[in-house]
Amino acid sequence: MSIRERSIRTEGVILRRRDFGESDRILELFTRKLGRVTVIAKGARKPSSKISGHLELFMRSSFLVSRGRNLHIVTQAETVEAYDSLRKDLSGIGLGAYVVELVDAVTYEEGSNIKLYDLLISTLDSLSAGEDPGITILYYELHLLDLVGFRPELFVCVECGKKIIEQDQYLSGELGGVICPDCGLGISAAAVRPVSARALKYLRHFQRSDIQDLKTIKIPTELKEDLEKVIHYYLTHTLEKHLNSPEFIKRIKNGS
Questions:
Q1: Are 154 and 203 in contact (CB under 8 A)?
Q2: What are the beta bridge partners of residue 63?
Q3: Chain centre to alpha carbon of residue 186
Q4: Model confidence over 22-59: pLDDT tens digits?
């Protein structure tokens, strides 16, 4: 928000929220115009509040944000897309929560990132439309890493620089990409994770493709878990944060 502007209207998605005081709510928003911003919604928990129904997690809303002394203030809010189809069961809630948890982990209050915002919206739209969550989430994870400067190198060994050939490799979150078998022998097992040639083939395809080109692809069932484990390892190591939503999603899948 420009220092000259007292208020601005912007679309945004709610990443986190928490109660504050007797009736207020603190929100972490990722918005189109302001990027990541922390705001306060005064009186949002009162039964008479006109904006409380527009402030749910991973809901996309239009906000009027005004400059406050310590925090920006949400003075108006109107739902643009509630993603109700994701809220009808725990699996959908878990997926929505994971999508915004990743944005929460990679953003700071440093201005807008429209490409990342558009990726967030298109991912929530795809999940809400019932498109394959395995394809949608893998594409989202890899392209989110790209947009925030953590694109994994999947085509040449990050140690020796040689082109990767079609065989089982290693992946290092610390070094930022794939390590060939020869170089992997000289690295501590704790610093790398094995990645099969098949899994790497899918990761490379997803990294360099547009989402429209991937919608008809079929990931073999036996490979889905391997891909989830590999990308989860890379994300948690690279972002240096524990992600809560994947464990929640896993428990829902297992029925526990």
A1: yes
A2: 10, 77
A3: 33
A4: 999 999 999 999 999 999 999 999 999 999 999 999 99
User: Strand 72-81 to strand 35-41: parallel, antiparallel, or no bridges (unpaired)?
Assistant: parallel
pLDDT score, position 71: 87
And the tokens for 101?
């948890």
Which of 148, 143, 146 is CA-nearest to residue 126? 143
- Domains contained in the chain, CATH given: 7-81 (2.40.50.140), 84-153+166-254 (1.20.1440.120)
Integer angstrom CA distances of residue 91 from 24, 60, 251: 29, 19, 10
Q: Name the one residue in this structure whose structure tokens are 């509630």.
A: 82
* pTM of the shown model: 0.91
Residue 100 phi, psi dihedral angles, 5° rounding: -75, -25
Q: DSSP characters for 76-118? A: EEEEEE--HHHHSSHHHHHHHHHHHHHHHHH--SSB--HHHHH
Look at residue 152 and give its three-state secondary structure.
coil
CB neighbour class for 99 (10 Å; exposed up to 12, middle 13-18, buried from 19):
buried
The dihedral built from the CA positions of residue 212, 126, 28 and 76, taken in this order, carries a sign that is: positive
CB count within 10 Å of CB 47 equals: 6
